[in-house]
# Entry
Amino acid sequence: MQQADNLGALPGVDHGFCTINDPLRPDDVFICKQVHSATVIEWEADQQSNTVPADGVFTGERQPIAVITADCLPILIAAKNAASVAAVHGGWKGLQAGIIANAVQRFAEEGIAAEQLLVAIGPSIKPCCYEVSEGFIGQLQADQGHLWPDTPAPWSVVQPAPLLPAQIAPPQAQQTGSAWFDLSGYGVMLLQAAGIRREQIEVSAVCTYCTSPAFASYRRRTHHPDEPKTLLYSWIARRAITD
# Structure
């Protein structure tokens, strides 16, 4: 199981980024029925896991909450005073539709401002392995280009090297005119647009495609269909000592 340093330093919060069978994953973790939306719900005791359509869950209770991913961004958010936490599934559709702003707003509704939050983005596909089409880039630029008017856009026409030593070869380009998309960089831009400073955000350098075969990667499995299907669980919970 991996942890983020910033959330790990909060005495009132437990969290982890782990495989589906990791013994440290809480048994009773609540997960939404993820549908690539911008919907963030608040956990309620009568909700059944995997039945409520949403892609983020927020709670001020001690119930462990989680998202499952296989390349998308797993985003864990905690108030610095550990009063509330959230888990967000950040695929490009949900990110573009505003799920990060919606999650930050949930904290604001409880009187917790953006500057009082810490955010950890867990293992996800990195630009070394995330090829997107020319049409995707054109649409994203038209819709979201205001986020990077004076800074580089979150993609490159040249395939970048992995951030960590690759154990699995990154894919070769499959499309003409494509680009290599920085999903976690895009997530950071959206967090900053929602009022969270860069120093409040920790981003894992792990690429789910090329860093390790143990990490779930939907895209890698499309290129290597014999691989067993697995998922990455990213969970967070308030500890009892906070009350």
User: Anything to note?
Assistant: DSSP finds six helices and 13 strands in the chain. The mean pLDDT is 95.
